[in-house]
Amino acid sequence: MSKKKKTIEELLGEALVLEEHPYKIPDNWIWVRLGYISNYIQRGKSPKYVEFSNVKVISQKCVQWSGFDITRARYINEETLKNYQKERFLQKNDLLWNSTGTGTIGRIALITDELEGIVVADSHVTVVRPENSVINSQLLYRWLSSPYVQNKLNNAWSGSTNQVELNLSTVKQHQVPLPPLNEQKRIAEKVERLLSKIEEAKQLIEEAKETFELRRAAILDKAFRGELTRKWRGENADITTANEWIEQINLLKEGTKTKYKDQLDSSILEKLYELPREWKWVRLNDLIEASTYGTSAKTNDDVTGTPVLRMGNIVDGYLELNNLKYLPNNHEDVLKYDLQTNDLLFNRTNS
Prior knowledge:
Blueprint: H1 8-15, E1 30-33, E2 38-43, E3 49-50, E4 55-58, E5 63-64, E6 67-68, E7 74-76, E8 95-98, E9 108-110, E10 118-121, E11 125-130, H2 137-144, H3 147-153, H4 168-173, E12 175-178, H5 181-223, H6 230-235, H7 242-254, H8 266-271, E13 306-308, E14 314-315, E15 318-319, E16 325-327, H9 332-336
Parallel strand pairs: 4-10
Antiparallel strand pairs: 1-12, 2-11, 3-7, 4-7, 5-6, 8-9, 8-11, 13-16, 14-15
């Protein structure tokens, strides 16, 4: 008797997993083997490609986490179809599981629409055709793409690096938590609703990120043109007059020794924008006590030493104090380059 003619009770009886289960599930659920709740599980065949034909062949490029992408399909020699059983022709609700290669193995997609013409899979893709009277295809897809299953696949692969394989026997023996069919439908619908909300939130975040730098730049531009404090200046004009403020800056400049030779291109001065009358353009050199490169001494991983901040520790205006390197506490550069509160650090090399 073929599997298709068996009753649901017979299918579930054969599929039932009696040994240790991965985790506890509700009492009216059961653990089953994927092979027993599928009408067909098989790797595709190595195709004989042609430039164009009426038959498309699915490769791992068509199986993306973003979904099934038939636009990446190639074409197969129609003459070779005589070597294909009809069950190899892909159909709606089939699951496609990438089964070879580091970085692609385990990636899975569901065919959600009717396919036009004959479509087959190549030998790097496993086709899983669920028994829809027992398991909801959408729910099965979400289970097989879940972090729980994908993480377990790391221990299920065989072969050497870049030649790893997801064996057919491993696929067929894979355990699946199976709720009653009506509950499956409700779970699948709720999962899709919740994931849809996550995608919407993700899209909003991405859109906000696109405008973040523009808004940040606009705020800083207004700040250093005096636009953010225009009203305040009008209400506090008597606190410091323009002449008094300029006099203070000039005194500061006169009392501070030159840190570096002035190499400013004079043409830059012609391009500076106009400031409020109380403001003045000055060189950074006139506002600092000192400026110096950091240590170039060889560091190590001894955490009992003094931590050294490197370029990678400066991220988006903040210090990330991880992946640190160290200098011995008695190293001459420790005191020479000791950092203080209100010091400014900036990366000066590389793109």
